Amino acid sequence: MARINMSAAWLVLAVALALLLPSSFCAAEPIKTTPTLFSFRLPLPNGVSGAESLAFDRRGQGPYAGVSDGRILKWGGSALGWTTFAHSANYRRIPLCTASVVPSEETESMCGRPLGLQFFAKTGDLYIADAYLGLMKVGPDGGEAEVLATQADGVPFHFVNGLDVDQATGDVYFTDSSTTYPRRFNTEIMMNADATGRLLRYDARSKQVTVLRDGLPYPNGVAVSADRTHVVVAHTVPAQAFRYWLRGPKAEQYELLADLPGYPDNVRRDARGGYWVALNQEKARIDAAAAPAKHLVGVRLRADGMEVEELTAAKGVTLSDVAEKDGKLWLGSVELDYVGLVY
């Protein structure tokens, strides 16, 4: 018998395994780190803050942002700056909404607090998830937004939050983060382990709202998958992303997509079939005295939930939205007075 060359044998075995084993057994893709410390800032108008969600219209104009006084603002470039695009009926009707003499936390239940935003490209309509006023819509020219829905199955909305639109049908997928607590008391949702949130669908043709899933712990951002087979839902607590299957053999199933390194807010599709997830806060550390090596404010997931990129920022910065547009990242935050831009 001829003597076996062990080095050659191992090489053949390694090649064979690489061909036979599924990709999940291969080395994990390295995670890219993108710092946002030096991102360009677009300051919001004096007296307002909290661009919680960002959107771009069918002509690519924007971003549009919902802010603390209840308005939707539009960025018109450095020459025009921010202008008012849309508002609720109450914004013009109630003097406190425009007086800026009372903190927005005291007036948002009356004036509205727009959170999730998304355009339906075919019509140019902008859909708005207003935490207090419900699911709303305004036409491509802006103005006063109309309320489309304030309840589902006889249960009123308490905290309408994330939103996305199926660009093929016009159906709107959105979350009601709690049927117990309004946005102002969102910390109670976490402290009391509230699990009364819902994932909902607004049918653009019948104009009816259907509850797709209830009994959810703090559902927040929503994104329709690129192939429209499912929607991804970010759960602020317990810091996870799930997907609800709309069609196919798993239709109506709700399954874990990813464990996240922080508490998520909005979810957006990226340009590669995956998702950007904004992190409002990192997970609590067991060793609270030890400072984290880097402050995470967002992650990018592949379509299968694998984390492939992370965003870092200076301590104290929190993000609510990461929107990818023409190779650039636009950053929104419910707590800051500017919109960020990373080239």
Automatic annotation (TrEMBL):
Swiss-Prot/TrEMBL keywords: Glycoprotein, Signal, Vacuole
A Gene Ontology molecular function term of the record: hydrolase activity
Signal peptide start-end: 1-28
GO cellular component: endomembrane system; vacuole
Gene3D superfamilies: TolB, C-terminal domain (2.120.10.30)
Domain Strictosidine synthase conserved region: 161-248
InterPro entries per UniProt: 6-blade_b-propeller_TolB-like, Strictosidine_synth_cons-reg
Record has Flavoprotein as a keyword: no
Pfam families listed in its UniProt record: Str_synth (PF03088)
Subcellular location: Vacuole
Family: Belongs to the strictosidine synthase family.
Annotated protein name in UniProt: Strictosidine synthase conserved region domain-containing protein
Organism of this sequence: Panicum hallii var. hallii
Taxonomic classification: Eukaryota, Viridiplantae, Streptophyta, Embryophyta, Tracheophyta
